[in-house]
Design a protein that fits this description.
Blueprint lengths: L1 H5 L1 H8 L2 H14 L2 H21 L5 H10 L5 H9 L6 H29 L6 E4 L5 E4 L9 H4 L7 E2 L17 H10 L9 E6 H4 L3 H8 L5 E7 L4 E6 L22 E6 L3 E3 L17 E3 L3 E4 L7 E4 L4 E3 L16 E12 L1
Helix pairs in contact: 2-4, 3-4, 3-6, 4-6
Length: 346
């Protein structure tokens, strides 16, 4: 059934008559991508109503395509029906997109483990980077190397990948390649194909929160990684650009999207995603994703700060918060940061 819906956008742009496409695109310029979902749902609703009249087709994909080409409603009635669909807000679309991405990621991990088990004795595929370094490309997402891989000199690093795109080596004082691969496997699928770029490090750029904001603004989503004095490693994926903190002036207000999440890397690896992905009834305190000004940086709020750093990126705290329903990210709720790094996704 999945293959029928994979090409849902072609129902609109390839199979609807041109006059319908003009109407849809006219609304798209004002409404944004939400109208595309409305149009596709309208096609499904109408197809379901007229399926009995059309007869039982052996090929559902062709049946939907044929139905679109012979749309029984006029353009005006089609658009009126599309806009009559209720409870279809942008927030609801975003929530469903996030839920779908998580399900797809989970399905990929299960499939990858199965493929790995069935091909353990096959030889490794090799890809040479432009620097001439040999990289082992594996369809699985395991951090463990097989006996055959360990015997290769020099030892090969197994890379997580989406398709066959390996992560490049990044100059990080905190993270190993395996650590970075773990974080990358948690990212939204649309971002996982890109490469990490180190934008800020307290080792290189100092310990000012203003410098951090200056070097990360305009780069879109970022990953903040912290190593405290106890050598525990944790952080957050920030789904929005830090420059968005100015959207309400100089007031400290929360912003961001449900793609944001908290995580721990050492001693344990765990991801704390937004509670709204699994719960539709989310209170306002469960929608506090990111906040920042000249004195503080916060990821996760609501009856506690999930992760917070001061203006000197030294004193921090981590507590349970309503947005991510997380445990404290390190052994002590108040910690001192040894190193802070921020990665962009380019």
């Amino acid at each position: 059934m999945d293959h029928v819906f994979d090409n849902w956008m072609w129902w609109i742009f390839n199979h609807l008559p041109f006059s319908y496409v003009v109407k849809v695109m006219d609304c798209f310029l004002f409404e944004g991508p939400k109208i595309l979902y409305r149009a596709a749902l309208t096609i499904l609703i109408l197809f379901h109503k007229h399926q009995g009249k059309l007869g039982n087709s052996g090929n559902l994909t062709n049946a939907v395509s044929h139905f679109c080409e012979n749309m029984p409603l006029s353009e005006e009635k089609f658009m009126k029906m599309a806009f009559s669909i209720r409870s279809f807000s942008r927030n609801e679309i975003k929530r469903l997109q996030l839920k779908n991405e998580l399900e797809l990621n989970s399905r990929d991990r299960v499939s990858a483990m199965t493929i790995s088990a069935s091909h353990e004795n096959l030889s490794l595929k090799m890809s040479h980077s432009f620097n001439g370094t040999a990289i082992a490309l594996q369809p699985c997402k395991s951090d463990l190397l097989s006996h055959k891989e360990k015997s290769i000199e020099p030892p090969l690093q197994r890379c997580r990948s989406l398709g066959m795109i390996p992560l490049a080596d990044v100059q990080s004082v905190i993270l190993t390649v395996n650590d970075l691969q773990t974080i990358w496997s948690w990212l939204p699928r649309r971002l996982a194909i890109y490469q990490p770029t180190l934008l800020f490090s307290t080792e290189e750029h100092g310990t000012s929160i203003l410098t951090l904001f200056s070097r990360t603004s305009g780069h879109g989503p970022t990953i903040i990684v912290i190593k405290n004095m106890e050598n525990e490693v944790f952080g957050a994926f920030c789904g929005s650009d830090w420059s968005d903190r100015h959207q309400h002036g100089n007031f400290l207000t929360y912003f961001g999207t449900g793609e944001t999440f908290l995580f721990t890397i050492y001693p344990n690896r765990r991801k704390y995603e937004w509670v709204g992905i699994t719960n539709q009834d989310v209170s306002l305190t469960g929608q506090m994703f990111m906040a920042g000004d000249n004195t503080t940086l916060t990821i996760g709020g609501g009856n506690g700060e999930g992760l917070q750093l001061d203006s000197e990126l030294f004193n921090g705290q981590t507590k349970h918060c309503d947005t991510f329903d997380n445990e404290p990210l390190c052994s002590q709720p108040y910690f001192k940061a040894k190193i802070v790094e921020v990665f962009g996704i380019d």
